[in-house]
Please model this.
Amino acid sequence: MTVGNVTTPGLIAGLLGTAQRDLLLVWKRPGDVLNPLFFFAMVCTLFPLAVGPSVEQLEFAGPGVLWVAALLAMLLSLNSLFLSDFEDGSLEQLLLSPQPLVLLALGKTFAHWLTSGLPLVILSPLLAVAFRMPGETIGVLMATLALGTISLSLLGSVGAALTVGLHRGTALLSLLTLPLAMPVLIFGARTVSLAASGDLYSMGIYALAAYAVGALSLAPFATAAALRISNE
Amino acid sequence: MTNKLTAHDLTLIRGDRCLFESLSFALESGGLLLFEGQNGSGKTSLLKTLVGILELESGEIRWNDVPVRQIRQAFFESIAWMAHRVGFKADLTLVENLHFESSLRSTSMHRFDAVLERLHLSRLKRLPLRSLSAGQQRRVALARMLLSDAELWLMDEPFTNLDREGRELVLEITAEHLGDGGMCVIAAHQDVPLDVPTTRIAL
Model:
């Protein structure tokens, strides 16, 4: 909207502007995003080497290992979500913006998912092959990871916002986020296992989708409130 | 339109220390409010309570006679904040940083080039902020104030890191803003030699 010569940004401009800024930052400094991804790849390639070449064992453990590695990789990436904004004073500028903080937090979380969650989803088929996962099951794995990482980004943003003002808040961040992330892990890994054994798995996908929608509608408000508290 | 910022009986306690007690003041369009005091006397805290980053123990801040806590987003539309930390991303260029501002609040981007020219930043447009000196980064923060459409400027130690020319620029810009009917709150440990109606609060 433009009145006279002054441009007033709309709500969507605030959301997309924040997401765009964070994506640009990742583009300029890709290291922070590559580390968790590298961790995910390492765990999933080393595990088969350690367990041995038994096909039954790998097929049995595959969904669980992939999912645990993905969950931990997401946790690793969460610590930096608000940290640099807190340290350089950008967070204060966001807090004092006329834009609703909920939308700005959602924009940041969206950028986090695009740079942390989505790469895991894209990388997972390559790693699933190491566990002898058949093609159809890989599709289910990607679907569960896509829905699951959305929930993890959103839930994690609440924990990251609460712990941003604390020195060495990483352990606390994990403690806060893990209980909420348990349903995602259980449904995610179990759904892939069911798909691998040829059972009905659609319920699991629905449950993950419901959890993601729930997180999407509640987490941004909690994140915004947590950011205001943390910046005191 | 004239605006009014009033504070009634502000008290702030941090930890077990009382930073200020029963503090009241008023500021109207064209006026300057100066928080003076030594390091650690609570100037920055007082600024932060004005915008609601810090919660007051008691007291109330009003914008045009409406409590700020009731009209938070509308109040934020009227303020520009320059803190000790500049609040820019060091990896992004000056242009990218200031363009992001325009997705947060009302800005006059048509004046972009003129503002950069005035602050001697035109040559630094494409550099990441990381490679600018501390004083130059303060100038970028000044550019944000100039581009914003806000009536009320809040500045914490605006002269930090600036050379003599930069300090005079701050004074000049502030005087202009006040002349245009704006208002300004400055927390500084040094004097602000401006010939405008000034309210001084010693902490």
